[in-house]
Structure prediction request, 317 residues.
Amino acid sequence: MSLPAIFDRLRLPVIGAPLFIVSNPDLVIAQCKAGIVGSFPALNARPQTQVDEWIHQISEELAAYDRDHPDAPSAPFAVNQIVHRSNDRFEADMMSCAKYRVPIVITSLGARTELNDAVHGWGGITLHDIIDDRYARKAIEKGADGLIAVAAGAGGHAGRWSPFALVHEIRKWFDGPLALSGAIATGRAVLAATAMGADLAYIGSPFIATPEARASDEYKAGIVAGGAADIVNSDLFTGIHGNYLRDSVVAAGLDPDNLPAPGPEAMNFESASGAKAWRDIWGSGQGIGAVDKVVPTPELVARLAREYAEAKTRICG
Prediction:
């Protein structure tokens, strides 16, 4: 099955993953202008009314760019919605998405038929992130257009399964849009994702180390300096297993090699030193060994595109 026409503008088969706290309009706009899908979590906009402002800014700047570059228009953008019932902003954030007819809505932590119906009503598509085949089936049953398979090695909340196993199981029954997440940080890895059956690569951590990202200099430096061995997997901080930068765990006054089990306060974790998940304890995927300096988003995408083309030529001739 071919990808929906909304993806025809992509320079590279890549979605810039929505990064909690980090993604913002500057990063999204830069990603879309560079030719990949840019995205942000609705919850990054605070107060809630800022969601409307952010979507308006992104829509207007990309429309202006498209008018000036009719032969190479921008890629579409996406807004990530947390569907879990604990998200008391869900309805208001969806109203802003509807107002601007957001082209792609990425859903997490639950699937709702009414959300998919609403997005389809204004002509958009929905992609739901999942960590296993069971959740993938539920998402499609409830009307999602496509899936984001979050495999082992992804930053933040990550799956446990090998990308080979996860993609294989999904492709046995689903031929729709499929993105793959998990330690993808080079153009070669993008090509590998498509070779194993995914349509798109879902890339997050490398974009933390860009000037456009809303991350501290220390966080960006940690991404640049780190490698796979610097990633700690734990469910202590949110009650869900996730991948985090080891140095940020140490800075929070914790021993990354002897972390306790999560307590009842896991969703609102705070260390004895006052460190909180995401703000101070930083999510990161295992692919950061490929990131060796902070570079502007267009430069990062250009590097990915170059590596992708070189790998494709070497393998396919």
